[in-house]
Design brief:
Number of strands of chain B: 4
Largest interface: A-B, 24 and 19 residues
Order of helices and strands of chain B: HHEHEHEHEHHHH
Shape of chain A: globular
Structural class of chain A: alpha/beta
Oligomer: heterodimer
Radius of gyration of chain A: 17 Å
Distance between the termini of chain A: 24 Å
Low-confidence stretches of chain B: none
Helix content of chain B: 55-70%
Helix content of chain A: 25-40%
Distance between the termini of chain B: 23 Å
Order of helices and strands of chain A: EEEHEEHEHHHEHEHEE
Number of domains of chain B: 2
Mean pLDDT of chain B: 83
Bound molecules: adenosine-5'-diphosphate, magnesium ion
Structural class of chain B: alpha+beta
Largest sheet of chain B: 4 strands, antiparallel
Strand order of the largest sheet of chain B: 2-3-1-4
Strand content of chain A: 25-35%
Strand order of the largest sheet of chain A: 6-7-8-3-9-10
């Protein structure tokens, strides 16, 4: 599903964020991306949805060479990828419902499709009763669930989540984790960047460790 | 794609106006102010142009005829001149008419003529031209007829040249100022739109990240920019219209017969120009500004 060959990313300010990255993530896998702040976790996720292009090397997503993808095809790549951002990127002047439907409208879904899909996904994350609220009235955990709902509403093959449990208490974190595991069980490939030791150790999934832009460890059923 | 979703784009534009009415109001007022300045300039130019046209129509060639010219010779000459390229109107002024005119012009001082035994003024042909540029070549042609009892051809050589210089400079300066104003207004309008687009950069980024095509993202903003431009243009036209006709009345009270442009038909293109300008500025501004936040 996702392959990288000798990938290097150098930001314009000459920070080498990633160096010689090689990896292969299969369809349906759940992969943790761990490592200290600044290790390059967010950068690696950006490569997958073509938020950036690699300075060197190849990134293949679902058989498509992302680095060579023409800009006008990028939207089609992104419709297959759900993203949960570290900084949420919610629209605080719209309701919970509108935050989710907004993305669907943007990719041209019909009104009845939108109603059906949003309802389904709100039920899945347990926010059906808050659909008319605005995000700033939600707790951190609820906002995170809303982000997940928005990311999976069009049933993407890949879900990328960047430190989704970063600022949550352990109990809420585990709730989010179970939600993600549930989504993974339905067949969605998930990459989750995290520093949350407790969570990683408890889930017993594949762990890729980054340090200073390099992969230093890649263990199936690893721990932090 | 555009027409299928036009409802969505309009709704989005209206929603964003509802969410942030003060920002859009400020934008519309600023753009309106720019259009009023451009409109005033255009109205002044339009009237100045009319003023020049009026003066221009008074430029003419006068062919003085000798006293012994016969009526058929006059008619032949008149025909030949009328057939010249550029002649608009050829009018015969007899000795008698010339004398009457002079008497009328002199008014109180007409007693001096009682001393004269015979009318000293020559008969003449007065030639109006289509374009002041034609005057000199026409004079050259007419001078070729000189064998037939023409006394003199007069056309105010220096004045015509200076006139042409002056109107030429006027046009160049006018067009330069207009271009400058248009350029400034495009800059200012795009800066105003920049604020409204910047306020919604997160929406643009999110749309881009969920896989909306760049034109799908742009259209609501284009519709919005277009609306802002066109609404501003309409308001400025209304203000200019009221103000202009009020001003025309005031001027006519002071100088009753000053020719001013009052035909709605002649003012219409000006209004259309403003609307077009508003639409184009709004359209282009949005297309370029939104592009910045796509694929962030
Ligand atoms: N947009 C950017 N411009 C320049 N440098 C960046 C940018 N994003 C990240 N970096 C740098 O790249 C390195 C990796 O960052 P990041 O991928 O965000 O790490 P992580 O998510 O693991 O904390 C860091 O040194 C960071 O400062
Ligand atoms: Mg990060």
């Amino acid at each position: 599903m996702i392959r990288m060959f000798h990938v290097q990313v150098t930001y314009p300010n000459r920070v080498a964020a990633l160096q010689d990255i090689n990896l292969h993530i299969r369809k349906g896998e759940f992969v943790f991306l761990v490592g200290p702040t600044g290790a390059g976790k967010s950068t690696l996720l950006k490569l997958v949805y073509r938020g950036i292009v690699p300075t060197k090397g190849q990134v293949i997503v679902d058989g498509v060479n992302v680095a060579r993808l023409k800009p006008r095809y990028v939207p089609y790549l992104r419709r297959n990828i759900g993203i949960v951002f570290q900084d949420f990127k919610l629209l605080y002047d719209r309701t919970v419902y509108e935050n989710i439907s907004f993305g669907l409208k943007a990719i041209g879904a019909t009104n009845s499709e939108i109603r059906q899909q949003v309802k389904k996904v709100l039920n899945l994350v347990g926010l059906e009763h808050k659909k008319k609220t605005t995000p700033h009235l939600l707790s951190g955990g609820e906002q995170q669930k809303l982000c997940i709902a928005r990311a999976i509403v069009n049933e993407p093959m890949i879900l990328l989540t960047d430190e989704p449990t970063g600022n949550l208490d352990p109990e809420t974190s585990w709730e989010i984790m179970q939600l993600l595991l549930h989504i993974n069980l339905r067949g969605t490939t998930i990459i989750m960047a995290s520093h949350d030791k407790l969570m990683v150790d408890r889930a017993r999934k594949r762990v890729i460790r980054l340090e200073q832009g390099r992969i230093v460890e890649d263990l199936p059923k690893g721990i932090y | 794609m555009i027409f299928e979703n036009i409802g969505f784009y309009l709704r989005e534009a209206l929603l964003s106006f509802k969410r942030n009415p003060l920002m859009y109001l400020a934008a519309i007022i600023s753009i309106t102010a720019i259009f009023i300045i451009i409109g005033l300039f255009l109205l002044i130019s339009l009237n100045f142009n009319l003023f020049l046209k009026n003066l221009e129509s008074q430029l003419e060639i006068i062919v003085y005829l000798e006293d012994n010219i016969s009526e058929s010779e006059v008619n032949d000459l008149k025909k030949s001149i009328t057939s010249l390229e550029g002649a608009k109107e050829v009018k015969f002024v007899s000795k008698e008419e010339a004398f009457q005119r002079l008497v009328k012009d002199l008014g109180d001082q007409k007693e001096i003529f009682s001393l004269l035994e015979k009318n000293p003024l020559p008969a003449s042909l007065e030639i109006k031209v289509k374009d002041p540029k034609m005057i000199e070549p026409m004079v050259k042609q007419i001078e070729k007829f000189k064998n037939i009892n023409i006394e003199e051809v007069e056309y105010g050589a220096g004045i015509v040249e200076r006139w042409l210089d002056f109107t030429g400079i006027f046009r160049v300066v006018g067009i330069s100022i207009l271009l400058l104003l248009l350029f400034a207004s495009v800059l200012i309008i795009s800066n105003i739109l920049r604020i409204t687009v910047y306020a919604r950069r997160e929406e643009i980024e999110i749309m881009s990240l969920v896989g909306a095509s760049s034109w799908f993202i742009r259209w609501p903003f284009i519709v919005e920019g277009l609306l802002q431009g066109v609404i501003s243009a309409l308001i400025s036209i209304l203000v200019l219209y009221k103000f202009y006709f009020w001003m025309v009345d005031k001027i006519h009270e002071a100088i009753p017969f000053l020719p001013l442009v009052v035909e709605k038909r002649e003012l219409l293109p000006l209004g259309l120009l403003l609307i077009l300008l508003g639409g184009v500025a709004g359209f282009l501004g949005s297309v370029f500004l939104v592009g910045r936040y796509i694929n962030a």
